[in-house]
């Protein structure tokens, strides 16, 4: 095998290593929770917090109503006990009972509103739970596939590194230095095939003379992109 052919084989290995490493990076990044999943989790957290807040609100209102109820009861007992004789005091008591009655009525409206809000919050919590469960299941399924792919990629890169080491034994240090320098300048692609009189690196025409020399195993370069041409 000519030195150019050896370099072309090395190029094939390096190209695949580059591709596999790139994909490995994508696979690793994809194993983070997606924005959609994070948003669904946030939605559930908000729904739970809302529900708890309304339940607390309702408890407070119930307590307030109970206190008021007791106050009204004792005021009424006093009013009808016959112990209060002063008309002014009686009138004040009457008016206080009426005022507390209005307060209680307003409280009952608030309790009713809180009950409606609790019902809405429970519905929202249920919907948020369902949505999260579905997304979580999808995500876990994709994670399993990604884990398998990650493992396969890592094994393949490992195997390619071994092949690369073997291949390096057939390449002169001078050729390797040139290859490395060319790869750096040419986006990782130093050696390319000629196909249909065309350089597959830049897709431009290769002269018949160059193709002939390449076929003879000589090291020739593409006149357009400067890459080494292989057959
Ligand atoms: Zn070219």
Describe this structure in words.
The chain is rod-shaped and about 130 Å long. It has a 4-stranded mixed beta sheet with strand order 2-1-4-3. The chain is mainly alpha-helical. It has helices spanning 3-30, 35-80, 87-168, 173-185, 208-215; strands spanning 191-195, 198-199, 220-221, 228-230. A hairpin with a 2-residue loop joins strand 1 and strand 2. The chain is built from 5 helices and 4 strands, in the order H-H-H-H-E-E-H-E-E. It has 2 domains: 3-10 and 172-230, no CATH class; 31-168, Helix Hairpins (Orthogonal Bundle). Zinc ion binds next to loops. Zinc ion is lined by residues 199, 201-202, 204, 222, 224-225, 227.
Q: Give me the secondary-structure category.
A: mainly alpha
One letter per element, helices H and strands E, the order comes to: HHHHEEHEE
> Which value, in Å, is the CA radius of gyration?
41 Å
- Total E-strand runs: 4
Mean pLDDT: 96
- The global form is rod-shaped
Q: What is the second-level CATH architecture of the largest domain?
A: Orthogonal Bundle
> What percent of residues are in strands?
5-15%
The ligands found in this model are:
zinc ion
Query: Whole-Å distance between the termini?
Result: 12 Å
Instruction: Name the poorly predicted regions.
Output: none
Sheet bearing the most strands, described? 4 strands, mixed
**Helical amount:** over 70%
């Amino acid at each position: 095998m000519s030195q150019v052919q050896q370099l072309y084989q090395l190029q094939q290995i390096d190209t695949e290593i580059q591709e596999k490493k790139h994909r490995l990076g994508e696979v690793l990044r994809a194993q983070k929770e997606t924005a959609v999943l994070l948003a669904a989790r946030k939605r559930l957290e908000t729904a739970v917090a809302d529900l708890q807040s309304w339940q607390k609100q309702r408890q407070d209102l119930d307590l307030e109503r109970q206190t008021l109820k007791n106050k009204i009861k004792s005021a009424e007992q006093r009013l009808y006990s016959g112990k209060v004789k002063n008309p002014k005091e009686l009138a004040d008591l009457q008016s206080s009972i009426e005022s507390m009655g209005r307060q209680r009525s307003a409280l009952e409206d608030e309790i009713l509103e809180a009950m409606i809000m609790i019902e809405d919050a429970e519905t929202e919590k249920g919907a948020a739970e369902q949505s999260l469960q579905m997304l979580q299941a999808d995500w876990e399924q994709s994670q399993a596939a990604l884990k398998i792919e990650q493992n396969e990629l890592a094994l393949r890169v490992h195997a390619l590194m071994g092949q690369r080491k073997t291949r390096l034994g057939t390449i002169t240090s001078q050729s390797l230095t040139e290859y490395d320098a060319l790869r750096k300048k040419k986006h990782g692609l130093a050696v390319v095939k000629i196909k249909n009189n065309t350089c597959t690196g830049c897709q431009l025409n290769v002269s018949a003379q160059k193709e002939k020399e390449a076929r003879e195993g000589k090291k020739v370069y593409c006149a357009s992109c400067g890459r080494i041409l292989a057959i």
